[in-house]
Amino acid sequence: MSSVISLNCRYEYPGGFELAAAFEMGAGITALFGPSGSGKTTILSLIAGLLHPSEGTIRIANQTVTDTKKKVLVPPEQRRVGFLFQDHALFPHLRVKRNIEYGARRRSSEAIPLKSLIETLELRDLLQRYPGSLSGGQQQRVALARALASGPSVLLLDEPLTSVEADLRDRIADFIEQVVNEHRIPVLLVSHNRPFVDRLASRVIEIENGRLLPKAD
Questions:
Q1: 30, 168, 171, 196: which could join 25 in a potential S-S bond, CB 3.0 to 4.6 Å?
Q2: Does 132 score more than 70 pLDDT?
Q3: Does residue 150 contact residue 104 with C-beta atoms inside 8 Å?
Q4: Does residue 157 contact residue 190 with C-beta atoms inside 8 Å?
Q5: CATH number, span 5-212
Q6: Domain ranges in the chain?
């Protein structure tokens, strides 16, 4: 397997809880599946550079971005990671178009054309609106467009269905599949929704109490 992400880290939380995880992922969609509080979002934050491990290494697309022994710590903005936060994290004072353009400010040569991104995610009629006027599903699509706009090496999705209306969940899953299939962007997906994971993921990594569970035979 050609690794898109290679992670071997330990992270100590205030209060004594500890995450210890080691895995590699390749192309397609990989899911981190487990109950709330098991360490899933922490792993995404470590990969994105928003948290720093107590010790360990992380490689993204053959680049070492974290190595505690060698004191390597590449800043988040230089990691070519698209991160879709659970709460969307859209800028409320910027219209949809400006939110997407913010994600494109460090576009790589491999970035998806913005016009294609807007068409794929059906955002053309929303470009002049503010995030506060959008439904949860619409905000999710805008946040996904912003995360993809820079042309990331990998896309991190943190519970992408949490605030989405029930009747839109299948459509959001369709959008994710379409983007991955058309543009071949590897995805690391965090969820505790097993049907969603089973539908999208080609590989599932289970985690509980800060530890990865062994693969079932």
A1: 30
A2: yes
A3: yes
A4: yes
A5: 3.40.50.300
A6: 5-212
